[in-house]
Amino acid sequence: MELREYLAIRRAYNLVRQDMSADCRLTFVELAILCRMSVLGRAMNTSEIAEYQGALRPTMTHRTKHLSELGFMVRSKGSADRRNVVCEITDEGKAFVDEACGLICDILRSGSVLSRTTSRRMCNYIDAMGSLTCMSGDLVLLGVLQAPDGRCTVSDLVVALGLLQPTVSMSVASLEGEGRIKRIKQDDAVGRSFDLALTDLGISHATKMEESIRALVIRRK
Question: Rounded to 10 degrees, what is the CA torsion of 84, 90, 95, 100?
Answer without folding.
Answer: -10
